[in-house]
Amino acid sequence: MTDPINFMFQEQVGMVIFNPTNEDFDMQYAGVSFTLKPGQKQNLAANAANHVLNAFGPRGLCYLAYGANEEEVAAKGRKRNEDFKRKTVMDFNVTNEARKNMNLGYISPTGIIKKYAEELGIELTTPYAQKTVGQESTNNAEVLELKKQVSDLTALVTALLKQKDTKK
Which of 11, 61, 95, 138 is the most exposed place for a label (fewest CB within 10 A)? Predict the structure, then answer.
């Protein structure tokens, strides 16, 4: 049998989509799955092409119009792909930092996020130690000690003010 993607769209006038990135794009349209490898071009029906362009355009997938400068289109696609990867890694870091501030657990990065971070040279947030019951009680003991010191200092200031008032 022929390739399902070609068979499905053989009678329709289409659009050429192009993957200028260094990633494989696994896509699906109308129940037919296909992969667009780096540098690969694929002719699809206009509705299918628009569907996958909407989904993968931010990741760098491009439409090659007749007569378009392929290098310019590819450069713009690669730039979108880099921006997408950078945003993905930064969102991961920001989310984990927010979770840390709310005393929530660390979310481990997926393999793809690790790959993006390594490719871009961005450091991922590292796992953090959550407070344990023992740490909280230590913190409570410290708070109680500080409250006692404040109380003692308040009493001292009050005594000094009374001495000052009696000397007048």
Answer: 11
